[in-house]
Design a protein that fits this description.
Blueprint (H helix, E strand, L loop, with lengths): L1 H66 L3 H14 L13 H25 L5 H29 L4 E2 L4 H31 L5 H27 L2 E2 L3 H6 L3 H24 L4 H7 L1 H32 L7
Helix pairs in contact: 1-10, 3-4, 3-8, 4-6, 4-8, 5-6, 5-10, 6-10, 8-10, 9-10
Length: 320
C-alpha cells in the first residue's frame, strides 16, 4: 500500500513538472513571437539608421586617421582660437536664438501631431487618401517654410566676413553632398511617374510632383547656404554682439530635425506609393527606396550637424 502511494506521488509530481514545463515553453514561444513581430514592425524604420551609423562611423574614423601625427599642429590651432576670442566668452551661448528655437519647437510639435494622425488614418482603408494627403501636406509646409528661411538666412549672413575653409568643415560639406545626391536621385524617380499621372486627374500625383520639386529646390538651396555660411565669421565686435541671422539658423536647425523625423517614417510610407509601384514595378521601387531613403535621412541629420556648427562658430573671430 505504501509502495502504491509512493508511485502515485511520483506520478503526480512528474505530471506537475510536465505541465509546468509546457506552460514555460508556451510562454517563451509567445515572448519570441512577440519579439519577432516587434522587430518586423520596427525593421523598416531602423535599417536607415544602420546605414547612417556606418556613414558617420566611416567619417569619424577618417577624421581620426587625418589627425594622427598632427598633435602639435592641432594644439597650436586651438591656442590661436583661444587667443582670438578673448571677449566673446562674456556673451551668452544662446544669445539671439530664443525666438527661432521657440517657433521651431512649435512647428516640430505640430509635425508630431500630423504624423500621429497619419498613422491613425493609414490603417483605415476608407481614410488612406486622407492620410497620404496629410503626409504630403506636412512635408510641403516644412519644405516651403525652410526654403524661405534659407533665403532670409543667406541675406542676413552677408554682413559677416568671409574666411578660409578648414579641412574639417570641407570634409563635412563633402558628406553633405553625398546626401544631396541621394535626395535628388529619389526625387527624380518620384517626379517622373507623378507627372505622367497628373493628366489622369490623380490628386496624389499632384502632391507627389509638388513635393519632389520643392524638396529638390529646398535641398539644393540649403546645401548652398551651408557651404556659404561655413565660410562666414564675425568681422567686428558688433557682429559678435548682434549675431545677424542666428535666429533663422536656429529655426532652420529645428526644421531639419522635423524633416529628419518625417523622412525616417517615409521608409515605411514608401510601400504605399501605388503610382510609383505601378510605374516601376514593386521590386524596382523597393530597390530605389532602399538606396535613396537612407541617404535622405543622413542628409537631414548631417544638415542639422552642419547648422549647429555654423550656429556655434559663425559669430566668433576666426584666425586665418
Amino acid at each position: 500500500m505504501v509502495l502504491l502511494n509512493r508511485k502515485k506521488h511520483h506520478a503526480n509530481v512528474k505530471s506537475h513538472h510536465t505541465s509546468y514545463d509546457n506552460s514555460t515553453i508556451h510562454a517563451a514561444e509567445q515572448a519570441v513571437l512577440g519579439c519577432g513581430v516587434t522587430v518586423k514592425y520596427l525593421a523598416p524604420y531602423l535599417f536607415p539608421c544602420a546605414i547612417e551609423y556606418s556613414l558617420i562611423a566611416g567619417a569619424i574614423f577618417y577624421k581620426m586617421f587625418e589627425k594622427v601625427g598632427h598633435v602639435r599642429k592641432e594644439s597650436e590651432r586651438l591656442e590661436k582660437l583661444r587667443k582670438a576670442n578673448p571677449k566673446t566668452s562674456q556673451f551668452s551661448e544662446c544669445h539671439r536664438s530664443h525666438k527661432g528655437l521657440f517657433v521651431g519647437l512649435l512647428i516640430f510639435m505640430a509635425t508630431l501631431v500630423a504624423m500621429s494622425l497619419f498613422f491613425i488614418f493609414i490603417v483605415k482603408r476608407d481614410r488612406r487618401n486622407t492620410a497620404i494627403t496629410l503626409y504630403q501636406g506636412t512635408e510641403l509646409v516644412l519644405l516651403s517654410v525652410s526654403t524661405v528661411t534659407c533665403l532670409i538666412s543667406l541675406f542676413r549672413l552677408q554682413a559677416l566676413k568671409l574666411s578660409d575653409l578648414s579641412e574639417e568643415v570641407a570634409f563635412d560639406d563633402n558628406l553633405l553632398l553625398i546626401g544631396l545626391v541621394g535626395m535628388l536621385f529619389y526625387d527624380l524617380f518620384l517626379l517622373v511617374p507623378a507627372l505622367e499621372a497628373i493628366p489622369n486627374g490623380v490628386i496624389a500625383a499632384k502632391l507627389y510632383a509638388a513635393k519632389a520639386i520643392m524638396e529638390m529646390i529646398q535641398s539644393m538651396l540649403q546645401v548652398f547656404f551651408i557651404l556659404e555660411a561655413s565660410r562666414r565669421c564675425a568681422g567686428t565686435l558688433e557682429h559678435v554682439q548682434k549675431k545677424p541671422g542666428r535666429t533663422m539658423i536656429t529655426f532652420l536647425l529645428v526644421l531639419n530635425l522635423a524633416m529628419w523625423f518625417v523622412n525616417t517614417f517615409e521608409v515605411k510610407h514608401a510601400d504605399n506609393h501605388s503610382i510609383h509601384i505601378n510605374y516601376y514595378s514593386s521590386m524596382a521601387w523597393k530597390i530605389i527606396t532602399h538606396i535613396a531613403l537612407p541617404l535622405i535621412v543622413f542628409f537631414r541629420f548631417h544638415s542639422t550637424v552642419c547648422l549647429s556648427d555654423i550656429w556655434a562658430n559663425a559669430y566668433r573671430f576666426r584666425t586665418e
